[in-house]
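Milestone M4 deliverable, item 7.
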Amino acid sequence: MSKIVGVHGINQEYRGENTIYKDWFPALRDGLNRAGVALESDNDLSCAFYGHLFREGKKGISIPDYDDTDIDSDWEEELLLQWAQEVIKIEKPEQDSELQRKGRVPREIQKALGILSESKFFGDIAEKFVIYFLKQVGDYFHNQDLREKIRDTIASCIKDDTRILVGHSLGSVACYEALCQHPEWKVEVLVTLGSPLGIRRLIFDRLEPSPCNNLGSWPGSVKKWVNIADAGDIVALEKNLKPLFDGNIEDKLVYNGSDAHSALNYLTAKETGEAIKWGLINP
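Output delivered:
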């Protein structure tokens, strides 16, 4: 049984719980080493895997040849423009340009896709990959059956001795909602890494349970919530979650180098190790 359960983000559908564990476990141990503590057992971590749910029912090529015409909802368009604007702010502040969302404007969508696909964050990947990532995030919020299956996957990994839940990217959203759904759990520490939880309208306002009076609920049994973000991580658009939730969140900034959103870079950070350490030494 595992004291720590880790939950991955998007674009992991061709992996599995064992391959995620193989990468996460040494990275997590390195972060804990920076914090001056060691895990007692290789079994102290387990990884909840839901990537296969995005793979089910897919045939033919793994990623369609998406282009700007496949941005087919207001939700996708707004998140795309917010990501692109964040890239401009971080990578090209001298441009001081504002992407405008005024209805369906193909030129602005094309411009945003160009900015993202050429950004350091996405590493010069093709536009179709940017759209693919965007649609996976959207699937979570617009496909209730998928959303519940992902949360059920997390629930299946929570045992009586589980004290720490670590969620990366979209996984942090699923962790938060699962904790709210299960206040009976004995999980005491939530660590969110590169989290999009603070993105207004698109994510924050669509959480389950819904925010009340502009405040999100505190996640179930948790006694300590540490939110960790890199300043250059565009997925974590809002780095400070404390003002948005009903409770005392500890927001911390780290530097992950050129791969700002990397789960492994987050896990090796001393700040992540310190957060997990608290749950290990305060049973």
